[in-house]
Amino acid sequence: MNAMMRTPAPESAREAVGRLFSSALRAGFKLTGLHRYNTATGDELLRVVRLKYPGWASLTDAEREALRQHHHCDGKGKIIRQMHRTDGSYLAKAPAKPANGWPLYRPPYPLVDTKPLIYVEGEVCADELAKRGIPAVASLGGAKQAGDSDWTAPPHDALQWPDNDQAGDGYMIEVAAKLHAIGCTVERIDVASLNLPEKGDVVNWLAMHPNATADDVLALGRAKVEPEPAEPIDEAPQALPDPLPPVPSFNADWLPASVRAWCVDAADGLQVPLDFTAIPAMVALAGAIGRQVGIAMKRHERWIELPMLWSCVVGRPSSGKSPALAPARRMLERLTSEERKTYLSELRDFEASILVAEATKANAKKAIQGALKKGDRSAAEAAAEAAMFAEEPPSEPRLIVNDATVEKLGELLNANPRGLVQFRDELSGWLASLDREGREQDRGFWLECWNGNQPYTADRIGRGTVRIEACAMSILGGIQPGKLAEYVRGAVRGGFSDDGLIQRFQLAVFPNLPADWQYVDRRLDLMAERTAWATFQRLRNLDPDAIGAERADGIDVPFLRFDDEAQTLLIEWQTELMQRLRRGEEPSWMESHLSKYRSLAGRLALVLHLADHDGGPIGADTLAAALDWCEYLEGHARRIYAPAIDGGLSAAHLILRKRGELGETFAARDIQRKGWAGLSDRDTIGDALELLIEHRHLIESTEATGGRPSIVYRWRASP
């Protein structure tokens, strides 16, 4: 019994490498370093893992590129990652940075008592010196992160050994300044006299002098490094960094050929990025298909994806995003208009049938009465049966909805089982409605709508029970960056908004606007529009049997499959995606977003295939285009989530733009009271104000108010 209850032994660092980097190890990478950084008390803080691919130089360019893409190695075949232990096992990321910065790396070798302490770039250099008994240290991240390390050690003699390149010189200059600040005497080895190759380092020199001792190292030529004179303080404001990461540009070739010219023509005419017309086009195509056909993601399991796409086009009010949504919406409205003609004809026939049925009932009453007088009950029942009217009225066709309650959507979805498209020119209003008191259950309904195949039952006092057979909703809309940032912060920080709703907006894009704007007034490409319209009509009237769709027990929607080559490609791509996510390198909210790409790839491939083909299995070329979409969308997702994790940088830019409305002196609460998009969260405003102080845009001061002191901010210089 005691053996059964024994606590499992903590995972060792080498065991963790085998688990976290299994994909790279299987690909041929070898573990070359496992460097331990300790806290001031000697406890392990983190490990730096180094992997290298043997024979990297002998690989072809294509082979090296494949390894770089799949395993994120550098141009020399090296993988350098950090990991730390938590709850007995390791995570493939760094822990929270200590308040004083990262500790310096000190090799775990017995050292001789020599002075000075040698500062080098990188753990490998420090290890090689330490193996010879020479005390050496390095900072985490080498030349790239010197400012993030803890340089608060007691004063000592320091000898710097930079790498033989410009970056090494710059790094050592920065380190020398930090060492001088704590009272160290600093000297630097004359690297130029060592006959090292370009970028050569300690390891190269020791390889050239395999028998070198500590005395040999200390005998190398050196020069004293004098403290740099203090520079005069520059009071001029500094420009804030760009808060948005770069995003990939959209490639027109990723669009179906049948709608490509139409999307390009619309974007050119509206002077907007092609993304702004391409995304709505894909959602509209998916809406036209709806639940008519799905795609089988596996050969044997019942994993069927339906073309439900949630989109969000992000842009400032002047970006032109609203007009760019219009062409796709018009196509959906034209489809509804065509279907309404048939509906009105069927409705007239139904109303005529009702008139006939009413007359038939009147005659039946007389026949029933006559039969009963004669005592012929059977004849009376036969007359009653003949007068019964069991026809149902035709359902009014709908494809677009704008603002409907869950109960009304239930009625509309049951009447339109192929699914609907929620269109909102400004999605912020709809998102805000889901946060209102009394609408808490609506979020649960919308979470079900993303799959397109889930039933939903709404029980309401006064309205009874509404059962929706299949929640199938696509979403098409736009939103301003500041308003979206507020919802993204909720998803990132946890709480009510952290339920996966934002992550379902897989087709969310935030492109760069063209640098120039020109007035355009020209004729539309009518041929391109007619070709696109014909595609929408064909998709809306698909015959699943005619396009080769399969049917199976337990699956209520006909479905297509991938061909063998595409299925193999899908397996490889999904395996790489999930291994990347399982490594734990992504934050939970990004992991939630990217994990849905497994479904998204199939949905996009289905839309792309049906838009350009008459059916049959989906090929590898089409799937490859869908995977290009996924890579493009991941880049935009990282930009969209950026304001929630940039430490107030986006908010600082917003405050700068609102300077004229704030006045020369203001308090933090003055910003919050304005109700500006992206500037409603107190913590975010506080972070933004600290950045503006750091970049010398603001001066913080405390004013006596007779009670609790008030913190106020004043602009440092005129704009």
Spatial gap, N to C terminus:
75 Å
Tell me the strand order in the biggest sheet. 6-5-7-8-9
CATH classification class of the largest domain: Alpha Beta
In terms of structural class, how would the helical and strand content be classed?
Answer: alpha/beta
CATH topology-level name of the largest domain: Rossmann fold
State which percent range the strand residues make up.
15-25%
Q: Which spans have pLDDT < 50 for at least 5 consecutive residues? A: none
Description of the molecule:
With 719 residues, the protein is α/β, with parallel strands linked by helices. The chain has 4 domains: 13-91, no CATH class; 117-224, Dna Topoisomerase Vi A Subunit, Chain: A, domain 2 (3-Layer(aba) Sandwich); 252-340 and 398-642, Rossmann fold (3-Layer(aba) Sandwich), CATH 3.40.50; 649-715, Arc Repressor Mutant, subunit A, CATH 1.10.10. Helices cover 43% and strands 16% of the residues. The protein is built from 24 helices and 23 strands. Strands 6-5-7-8-9 form a 5-stranded mixed sheet, sandwiched between helices. The longest helix is centred in the middle third of the chain and has 53 residues, at 321-373. The protein is elongated, with a radius of gyration of 34 Å.
